[in-house]
Write a structure and sequence with these properties.
The chain is of the alpha/beta class. It has a single domain, classed as Alanine racemase (TIM Barrel). Helices cover 37% and strands 18% of the residues. It is built from nine helices and eight strands. Strands 7-6-5-4-3-2-1-8 form an eight-stranded parallel β-sheet. The longest helix has 21 residues. The protein is globular. Bound molecules: pyridoxal-5'-phosphate. Pyridoxal-5'-phosphate binds next to strand 8 and helix 9.
Length: 236
Amino acid sequence: MTPAEIERNVKNIRAEIARAAGEAGRDPDEILLAAATKTNGAEAVRAAVKAGVDICGENRVQEMLEKNELGAYDGVPLHFIGHLQKNKVRQVVGLCALIHSADSLPLLQEISRIAEKRGLVQDVLLEINIGNEASKSGFRPEELESVLEEAARFPALRVRGLMAIPPICAKPEDNRPFFLQMQKLFVDNRQKKYDNIRMDFLSMGMSGDFAEAVRCGANLVRIGSGIFGPRNTTTT
Ligand SMILES: *Cc1c(COP(=O)(O)O)cnc(C)c1O
């Protein structure tokens, strides 16, 4: 994709987000657009930033560090959206404004431990395995209450909301039940009494289904191929 094509894609996605938000009676300005930048080079990422995405989200630590060296994300916050291994936490804490993919208690504990050492507080989202898929990581919906209670005890971590990747579906509408279930979890846990838990972000919706996600309450969508074109699947 050329920078001009990337710019056009971002514009079209913004328009579609605005339309979906309108249909749901929501303000489009409250919906953040994250470019899912995996496998795309620094030039393409810079073009997306220039085109006005709100956030860059990366999946792989090494790839992220390399592009960060090149200044690819300059101008927008950097988020981590991929599965994070405990032994890579130190490379992500502090560099990423938000980790979308906190998917186990040991990982939460490690994030807090590293953040505390560095004298900072790391924002995270709890990843929910909304389709109860064996192949996906994340907390089970019914575990969320107890996970929030546990998370409240980690001093250098702040839960800012929830994230989900629903099962692969033939049509975007097929994901609606999962998105609605996520919205319910998000809203039900909004009034939690813990100091370090604030349900600000509901991160769901990708290239194929972001409009549906927005209609179901998402306020942060993560879009890769819709911005950058199809990925070389051997590298993802
Ligand atoms: C790749 C990726 C996306 C974007 O996927 P597309 O279908 O290319 O839009 C969103 N979220 C996560 C966690 C991803 O890994």
